[in-house]
Every structure is written in C-alpha cells, then in structure tokens.
Amino acid sequence: MSGPAAVAAVTGIDTGDTAWMLVATALVLMMTPALGLFYAGLVRSKNTLNTFMMCVGAIAVAAVTWAAVGYSIAFDGDGGLVGGLGNAFLHGVDFAPRDGTTIPELLFMAFQATFCIITVALISGAVVERMRFGAFLVFAALWSVLVYAVLAHWAFGGGWLQAGGTLDFAGGVPVEMGSGFSALAAALVVGARKDYGRQALLPHNAVYVLLGAGLLWFGWFGFNGGSGFSTGNPSVLAFVNTLLTPACTLVVWFALDLVRGRKVTAIGAATAIVVGCVAITPAGGFISPGWAMLLGALAALPSYAIIVWRTRTRVDETLDVLAAHGLAGFTGILFIGFFAELSWNGISDGLFYGNAAQLGDQALAALVTPVYAFVATFVLLKLIGLAMPLRASEREEGLGMDVVQHGEEAYVTGEGAILITPEAGIEAEVPVADPA
Predict the structure, then answer these.
(1) Measured between alpha carbons, how far is residue 413 from residues 47, 246, 406, 407, 409 in Å?
(2) How buried is residue 224: exposed, middle or buried, by Cβ count under 10 Å (0-12/13-18/19+)?
(3) Average of pLDDT values for 156-173?
(4) C-alpha dist (Å) from residue 242 to 117, 227, 324, 352
(5) What is the domain extent for residue 423?
(6) Whole-angstrom Cα distance, residue 237 to residue 288?
C-alpha cells in the first residue's frame, strides 16, 4: 500500500471525510458574501456598498484574528471559561487529525474560521447605515477574540458548557445567540438612524434579499452538514434537517403574512429561510427529521412576533439580527432539551424521552449566552467609543455611507458621482467614464 491510502492508514485521516470538509468549508465561506447580498438588499440604495463591505471586512479581520489567537482560545485545552494560547498563530496545527475527527486539524481550523467570520458579519446588520467602517473593523477584531472565541470554547471547544452536558451541534451558542444578543447591544450603543421613526426606511432591492437568502440556505448545508466532521450519520441527519426545517418555517411564515397583511411578502420569505436555518443549527444532528419539521414551524412564531413588535419601539436594530438569529437560536437550543433522541444521535435523549437533565443543560446555555454576549459587546463598544467615533455625523448619514466611507456608489446615475474630499468633506461632481 502506498500513496494517499498509506498516509490515511498511518495518520488516521479519512480521505472521504476530508474531501467533504473541504467542500463544506468553502460553502460556509460563501455564506458571508451571500449575507452581504442579503443585507445590501434590505438597506437604502445609498448604503448598499457599505453594507456589503462590512461583510467583506469581517472576512479580512476575523480570519486573521482567528488564526492568530481566536482558534487557540476556543480549542486549546478542555474545561474552564477560555482555552489557552498553545495554538496561537497556528502553532502545532498541522496535518495530523484533530482529536475526535478523521480530518487534518489544519482543515478543522479553517472550517471553524468560517464560522467566526460569518458571526462577526451578522452583527453588522444591527448597525448598518450609520456606523463608521473603521470603527466596525476595530470592533470586529476585538469581538471575534473576546466574545466569539470564548463562546465557541464554552459550547464546542471543550469548555464548561460542553463538559457539563450542553448539546450544540453547529453553533447555536456562539454563532446564533452570540450574534443576536450582541446585535441588540450594538444597536443600543450606536443609537438609531437619524430618520428612524420619522420616515419609512424600506429595503431597496427585494431580489437581492431573496438571492442572498437562497445562497445562505445553500451554504447552510455545509454549515450544518459539515459540523459532523465526516460523511457519517450525524452529517447526513443534519443535512436532511437543514432542508426540512426552513421549508416548514416558510410555510408557517406565509400563513402569518396572509393573516396579518393578506399578502405573502418577499422580504418575509427570505427572513423565514434564515430563521429556519438558524433554528436547526444547534439541533441538526440531535433530533429526528420529524421533530426538525416541528421545530421549523414553531421557530417562525417568536421570531415573527419580535420583528413585528420591534418596529413599534425606538430600538433601531436595523436588520432584526436579534429576532432572526438570537431568538431562533435560543428556540433551537431549548428544543434539543425536549426532543433530542438517542436512537438518532447516539448521545442523549431529551425530556420527551425521559431525560429531564438534558433540558436543564440546554436552559443553562440559553441563559448565560445572551447575558455574556450582550454585556461583553456593550462594554466593548463603549470602550471603543472612547477612542474613536462609532457613527457618522447626521450630514454624512444623509449623504449615504457608500460615498462617505468608500468614495463609491452602487448605482451611478447621470453624468457623475458624488465624492467627498478627505480634506474638507466637500461634495463634488466627478465624471464617470463612458463604458463604451
């Protein structure tokens, strides 16, 4: 025996599992540009590029911080509140299999990096149309280390929640609840947009939103299906559940839209897809397909209600990250406690099957995660605000963040584009080249 087969036999690497995880990692990375498209369609046209660029910025910053220290904090060592620094700058992370898997640890690290990236990008949805790009990049770097990496350690890096029995298949704690409740804190610190509550701030491109949601769903098959780290039963179960749960959420969301407004909205449909994908994220490999369908139907209810309620408040959490991610992730985490099924997951039953302790473990995670994410994000942004302004001025906000922050526009009309000179912030008409 020689070549790849010999290497696999010696090292414990499974080439089939590795091939699937390479694909899954690429799928999850694609989700961040897809999120950019989804978010960009939800804002006003003058903020399209800036909204997308926040997601691009998250890729740049979070990938670097993850490789530098985030991965080590999340996965170096078992138990406790944080990991160590033994794997800082990927020290010791090589082609040997990650403990408990049949894939190289280097690939495991890359897969987990894509989770950190999209979680940082998700929070931008709470502060688009008014937060300065530079301030967001600083926040992204610090948050990815001080909040995301810590929560990842708790939930699936061997930390205290996982050691205590909490089940989280693909990131209900660090990704979904972490982003959702951090988004609420960010919205409160940065403050509402200047026109919030005084005029309709409507999505400018529903097609972008639907296309982004569709690409997110596609990528979520890698997000959840890859979290089994193999081509075995857990990944297959999560893959199938990722098809069924959002579909059921869509059906219920359609019904809610019809009852409330007698029309099924495109924005509502796109939101429903995300809510369903989020809800099954923590539960994907732990519940049967039948229960996954019920989860999809139930998850629509609290998220829909919070979105309707939030628009009547002064909380300008712009793109409803709390409802679509925080609350849906909360629902999925608790659902495991009721309906986890040993015959499907090989790990634990939930309350419905006689194991009340599992519900207690899940409830603990659902309690401590929102508190830590909210408080840590609130304090972090307050400290950053002492060093630099977090948001644009009212005049800059009125002009649009695309021109002010990037000197570009998504949609150029007429003979020229508006440019803000860096010296004086003066508007000027700049000629646009004829594409012919």
Answers:
(1) 15, 38, 17, 15, 10
(2) buried
(3) 96
(4) 21, 12, 16, 22
(5) 399-431
(6) 8
Same domain, 304 and 427: no
Q: What is the pTM of this model?
A: 0.92
Query: Which band of pLDDT confidence, cut at 50, 70 and 90, is reported for residue 422?
Result: very low
Residue 383, Cβ neighbours under 10 Å: how many? Answer: 10
Q: Would you call 158 helix, strand, or coil by DSSP?
A: coil
**Do residues 233 and 241 touch, judged by C-beta distance below 8 A?**
no
Q: Which DSSP state fits 82?
A: S
- HSE value, Cβ hemisphere, 13 Å, CA-based, for 257: 16
Specify which residues 386 forms β-bridges with: none
> Considering the domain boundaries, does residue 33 fall inside one?
yes
Going by C-alpha positions, the residue among 189, 192, 135, 235 that lies closest to residue 376 is 189
Place of tokens 């978010």: 39
Q: What is the DSSP annotation of 173-230?
A: IIIIIHHHHHHHHHHHHH---TTTTTS----S-HHHHHHHHHHHHHHHHHHHHGGGSS
Rounded Cα distance, 406 and 271, in Å: 28
Same domain, yes or no: 316 and 244: yes
221-271 pLDDT tens trace: 999 999 999 999 999 999 999 999 999 999 999 999 999 999 999 999 999
**Joined tokens for residue 357:** 């302790």
pLDDT at 418 over 80: no
pLDDT of residue 330: 98
Is 10 among the domain residues?
A: no
> What 3-state class would DSSP assign to 419?
strand
Q: What is the pLDDT of residues 359-414, one digit of tens each?
A: 999 999 999 999 999 999 999 999 999 999 999 999 999 999 999 999 999 987 64
Residue with tokens 């690497």: 13
Q: Are residues 149 and 246 in the same domain?
A: yes
Number of domains in the chain: 2
CA atoms of 319 and 123, how far apart (whole Å):
9
Residue 429 has pLDDT above 80, yes or no: no
Please tell me the predicted confidence (pLDDT) of residue 430.
Answer: 40
